[in-house]
Amino acid sequence: MIQEFKDFIAKGNVMDMAVGIIIGAAFTAIVTSLVGDIINPIIALFTGGIDFSGWFYTLDGSEFASLAAAQEAGAPVFAIGSFIMAVINFLIIAFVVFMLVKMVNRIKEAAEKPDDVAPEVETGPSELDVLLEIRDALSKG
């Protein structure tokens, strides 16, 4: 059973998946920073200073200065801004993954495509042809 597990782990698919998960986690941190530090301030600039990450409604009607304060108080919160941030993150990640897959597919197609076909060059008769000619010449003469 241990040998089976070792064989399973040693397969390329499992290792590829593990590398993909690790890179995906690191990439998520980059995208989260991109959205929070670059995209949201630009959106806030065009929407008159609205910061989506702090956009929330309390369902019990109470008012709090921030989403963190409402959550700390235990108030039921409808966090619209957090949802919008998650949607933006998803769209960015999906677009980048699409572009990466597209690039990898192009590289695969280029690698599978045969190089320019060399023109056929006449090499003369084969060894068998020469031997047959010699046999025929000896039998005639």
Structure notes:
This protein is mostly helical and 141 residues long. It has one domain (2-115): Large-conductance mechanosensitive channel, MscL, domain 1 (Non-ribosomal Peptide Synthetase Peptidyl Carrier Protein, Chain A, Orthogonal Bundle). 70% of the residues lie in helices and 3% in strands. Strands 1-2 form a two-stranded antiparallel ribbon. The mean pLDDT is 80.
Summarize the structure.
The chain is mainly α and 141 residues long. Helix content is 70%, strand content 3%.
Task: Enter the CATH topology name.
Answer: Non-ribosomal Peptide Synthetase Peptidyl Carrier Protein, Chain A
Could you estimate the helical fraction of the residues in percent? 55-70%
Rg of Cα set: 33 Å
Secondary-structure element pattern, one letter each: HHEHEHH
CATH architecture: Orthogonal Bundle
> Alpha-carbon distance between the termini?
76 Å
Number of helices: 5
What does the average pLDDT come to?
80
- Output the strand order for the largest sheet: 1-2
**Could you give a short account of the major beta sheet?**
2 strands, antiparallel
How much of the residues is beta strand, in percent?
under 5%
Structural class: mainly alpha
State the total count of DSSP E strands. 2
Number of domains: 1
Helix and strand layout, with pairings?
Elements: H1 2-10, H2 12-46, E1 57-58, H3 67-73, E2 77-78, H4 80-112, H5 127-140
Antiparallel strand pairs: 1-2
Task: Give the tags.
mainly alpha, Non-ribosomal Peptide Synthetase Peptidyl Carrier Protein, Chain A, 141 residues, 2 strands
